Description:
This protein is α+β, with helices and mostly antiparallel strands. The protein has three domains: 117 residues, Phosphorylase Kinase, domain 1; 178 residues, Orthogonal Bundle (Transferase(Phosphotransferase), domain 1), CATH 1.10.510.10; 230 residues, paralog of FGE (formylglycine-generating enzyme) (Alpha-Beta Complex). The protein has eleven helices and 29 strands. The chain has a seven-stranded mixed beta sheet with strand order 1-6-7-5-4-3-2. Strands 24, 25, 26, 27 and 28 form a five-stranded mixed beta sheet that branches. Strands 14-15-18-29 form a four-stranded antiparallel beta sheet, with no helix packed on it. Helix 3 packs antiparallel against helix 5, helix 5 runs antiparallel to helix 6 and helix 6 runs antiparallel to helix 7. The radius of gyration is 26 Å and the shape is globular. The N terminus is likely disordered.
Amino acid sequence: METQQPMNGDPNKSLEVGVVLENKWVILDFIGKGGMGEVYRAHQLNLDRDVAIKIISQKWLEEINDNDYEAETCVERFLREVKVMAQVRHPDVIQIFDYGTTSIGKGGQDLVIEYIAMEYIPGGTLRSTMSAEGYYPDEERTREWLTLYFLPILDGVCALHEKGIVHRDLKPENVLLDGKTPKIADFGLARSCRLGPVTESMDIKGTPPYMSPEHFMDLKRTDERADVYSLGKILYEALSGKMKQDQIPFRKASLAEPETPFFQDLDRIIQEATNEDKRERLPSVKSFRQTILDTLETEIKPSPPEAEKAPVLKHKRWKTLVAAPLLLLIGLGIYLFHEESHVSAPSSHSVSPGITQEKTQEKGSEHGAPPPPGVKGQDQDIMRLIPGGTITLPPSFGPDAGRTIQVESFYLDETLVTNYQYVEFLNRVLSKIKVEDGVVWGDGKVWLMLGEVKGGYEPIVFEDGKFRLQLSAYSSHPVLRVSAQGASAYVQFHGSRLITEDEWLYAVITGKRAVSSESTLQRPVPSASDENAAPSPVLIYQPDAYGIRGMNGSVGEWGVRAWKTSFEGDNKTQDYIVLGACAGSREIGIQGPSPSAVARRPWEASEEVGFRCARSTTPESG
């Protein structure tokens, strides 16, 4: 056990940035804290990787310093978490790397701390995938959420139960997201049949809306059916909308008069999973998982643990999914034929009247093979292929209106760049940055405006010479108040570029799909009076036909124009524009379905404008 150097700093945090634990873990950032623990991001020197370090909060221990029994129980529970996590190796369960005891110097004293080193997951939580209004009655988006997130979570919990482990605190905030892979975390209340018992005090441990009645009455007597109850509540919340902390605790949940067979089946599953009598509840998470699969009419194809899980559709479902795109293409052709902006459809099988059809092929690719449908960008985001074609420019394109141009194939980020991604970028180029009066200058140019984006929502702060997120919950929200110069700096750093106006128009129209007026794609940016002033997380938005989320939605995007635009009374010209509904269609006379674009100075920043990375399929044109 090694003693660290004395430190001064925030008395509410046990560790300060820069401290080294046992000559191995360098503390990089404070992530957050719970009831009795603190979590930090650290760098492991010997293996050159980032990890998460969890310790028992010294502030919490000081508050119970007169209760040696409670403090001892806390340490025992912390050690239990280490042993429980170490038993499980599963892609949907967070991995533990190490455990240790060390001491740090603080306030003239040596403080002994217990720590866990575990997998660092930079994304948000399952909460960021769940709409505040709920997915009901949108069947397509419900199916997508169940397949992408809920079924993998059930797989992870099944792996826990196979090891004899009951989590006992399953909730959206305890499921981290590694990209789109959910990782079950926070095993502070887990109970394993292989470990000795930890005596429980009389205070409530858990989260009431997700706690089963037997959990509340006697934590020691809970079994895997308590996890079934919690999972049922998570499913209920995903469909019906966010629960308040005091909403229907310890009670059976049900949807309000579901109208379709699909949601009636899900309602039955929810009621069976959340039955107050555990003897009448779904008997296991394995049976829970099977009922979901039956409702989706899917089976999971056997694959190695490393392979990505994907549903194999049954014959009837397969027919439906083959027919649906064909009908979509027919409808899209009719739609585009009657619209002012005529754009070629991405299909290569049929040509609608009045539409130029192009076969997309990556120039210079080996044996003329087409580019892959998706690639990973340098910032680890997924980029989707937008096949090329021709487009006739609408009136909003000024002197070029009516001109037909060719749009080459290109890749586009599935989502807008997030707060987390931009903070990571800023911290990697700190030598180029100066912060003055809330303005972030990079290379002598305005990159970002700090401060509140909306009332009560201030996602990014600059403290102690480094950028960080105010709350980890803000990590998956789109970065806003970034200038065109700041957006350009990011995309160039990651070997990409901003989207052009003609590419953006082409992608919006060819990727267009029918959405209801209540879709999250149409949801406005919350106002300062909203309970949650933050914009929606990027994964909430419904994907278009290409898999791109949030295009022409409530958040606008920085792009570039192929020609220069002069401002009246300003001799300088610039080619940066804001693309999207927020650009103000009426201001520039846009009629009908045509998207809007407004020229902006490169140093301007707005609380309604973000950006994403684009990249050509050919290196020489990117």
